[in-house]
């Protein structure tokens, strides 16, 4: 923990399957360009309705990652 | 999108199965009397406990639908 | 309902499986020492990320139970 | 509790007498056109001042009722 | 003011022109079916972006109206 | 309503008798030095406990009054 | 005031009579098992509706008490 | 910036023309009696409806000004 | 909508002209370096006061854009 | 405590040294013109950055004082 | 992290010295009766004013600890 | 101030020493890769507890900086 600094970004993930999958999609997408993802926190759960059913689940969330000395990029 | 006006109502759905099902039940119920449901947003997730287990999941949510010229009724 | 008094405590449950399971784990744990659990309310949904996936789901929640004349202990 | 769906509306009641009476007036008014009122929750307490005294107490509140299969109308 | 009861509904208006016009559109739409509109309160200002410009302004708002003895309908 | 400007101040009233009396005491006190009090809005209800009973009810509230051309003073 | 530490618990009291009585019931119940109750703060006012009237007033509140060296128990 | 102390007051401005004008009216009014106004922050946007149109725009806002050694009065 | 992931950033735009122009300036600036801007949401409206008038309108807002496979850069 | 009425004002203090000093500066400034200051409550902690360091700590806070019969002035 | 359950309690610490010391006092007091304290989160910073200076700093905070199988007691 | 646009990012700094140091660490880290840092605002103060003492202070904060025409990079 020492004196690390974390950066927190806000993402919105979506999925036709459910809440956990929408979160998982956003985490996977963030992981493709950012190293050191550590935690997430849900801000808002919402969704699109089509034909009387939930067609897409959407989760707005904050994702935190460690800022280390090599920068944010993932290699 | 033009100049549509949306109305937003607040519903609470419940289900013994889980959070997504409680939301789905409320959407299905609203769909039986309202046309043009478009989106929902979760306000609160809660539930009843019986015998040390979650017996009913309850989700309080806002549901938005388009107000068109034929009124709110579904025919 | 009469004139019962309820006490509300705050718990954080976790699970590698999902949101409902994290809630269920916290309820089961509380049930092992408290009688008369009645309801819960979710305050916050968060989680730990490892290797680009959600490794642990964490739910911070309030749990309410009846204060009866025999005290809080479960026997 | 099963799989009922509840609708929640927002009302503002007023009374020259006090907070409980303003709430009671709104509940009575809602009861005249809606069946199955179940609970209320206070959002805001305010009032009008005249001649250095509270002339009207006003309570903004949410009122929940069960949506059953016969519709919202009271007969 | 006496003992009137008000009902408050939530609407979202939109307009390509600006914030006041989005509010005005929602008020005009509500006025076409509800009598006795009295006040509104803005909950959220948002909009859609197209080609680097704001294409639609959207305002989510609460609108209050008096519940009188003849019901909500406008004739 | 025209183009009046209102000022809103925050007060905390207290009373051994109840919530309405604590509000009434703060309104009466404000009325002794300010003209044109118009409305109040409750921010917080709290109190002091002595010997297992509520000894003083305290209400933190905002009070609005019209700013007219003669200044705030009451004569 | 010196260096005392206070603990704050959350309770929900209820009463068929009114808001102050619901608060008073919760304070009295807490006083039967905790020493040194000092203050309360209302979080939420709600109630159950039966037959078009408020049948039970419910107040969710935080209650603070001094933690002294002899522990929380009341003897 | 040094060690200045600022005071922040809450005002509500109104105008039949729009949101910016309601803010401008409140700022102009405050400027007539207070020196050193520095910034404002909008708390709430609301309005009165008459004949299906917005008749008065109302903006509740906080206004900050520097407290200097000569007091608040404007000369 | 499928399984897109959106990123949301926070910006503060300013303008001497008004609220819509401050928002428009921030959107135009973001559009110069980011592709696929989709929506904005206002967090806070504030401003600087000079000589008793609003000199600069400032709007703090969140802006959402699609994360696609080619990265965030605009070419 | 009896039936005192308190007034609460909002101040922003600043200091190059730290958070406690910014609060202390605001309290000292308020004390120079107001009698009977009793408590403060922090609303917001912020600051100005210059050359990669915090140059000024700023604390927005509410300060409460007793309204007694001789008025607010300090003599 | 596995499937631990945490309990979160609310404390208010105080100190004549400063904010960190008020927090430290509450943590030390909680540690004397609870095992496995893990984290805290500040809810509110306030204080008492005497003679124009901050006499006591008060911090209301939530403290989390692991619920393990041997119960909450510290031995 | 003119028509500058600011970007606001969220960081969490930590330090074993105290709140100001945790903030200072986050500012210093941000300054190593971003030009034109202007202000910060504290969102949350928390910390880790070890052996009955605060082992790490953590501050979640928003940091604002000017977006100028040369981009965000620091050279």
Task: Describe what this molecule looks like in 3D.
The structure is a homododecamer of 75-residue chains. Chain A is of the alpha+beta class and 75 residues long. Chain A has 1 helix and 3 strands; from the N terminus they run E-H-E-E. A 3-stranded antiparallel β-sheet of chain A has the order 1-3-2, covered by helices on one side. The first copy, chain A, is elongated. The model of chain A has no long low-confidence stretch (mean pLDDT 91).
Summarize the structure.
Twelve copies of one chain form a homododecamer. Chain A is an alpha+beta fold and 75 residues long. Helices cover 17% and strands 53% of the residues of chain A.
Number of helices of chain A: 1
Strand order of the largest sheet of chain A: 1-3-2
User: Largest interface, with Cβ-Cβ < 8 Å?
Assistant: A-I, 17 and 14 residues
Order of helices and strands of chain A: EHEE
**Mean pLDDT over all positions of chain A:** 91
Task: Look at the helices and sheets of chain A and give the structural class.
Answer: alpha+beta
Regarding quaternary structure, what we see is homododecamer
Question: Could you estimate the helical fraction of the residues of chain A in percent?
Answer: 10-25%
Total strands of chain A: 3
- Give the low-pLDDT segments of chain A: none
| Measured distance between first and last alpha carbons of chain A | 24 Å
Shape of chain A: elongated
């Amino acid at each position: 923990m020492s004196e690390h600094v974390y950066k927190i970004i806000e993402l919105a993930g979506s999925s036709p399957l459910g809440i956990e999958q929408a979160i998982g999609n956003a985490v996977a997408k963030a992981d493709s360009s950012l190293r050191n993802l550590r935690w997430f926190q849900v801000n808002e759960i919402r969704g699109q309705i089509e034909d009387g059913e939930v067609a897409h689940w959407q989760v707005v969330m904050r994702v935190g990652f460690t800022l280390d000395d090599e920068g944010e990029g993932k290699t």
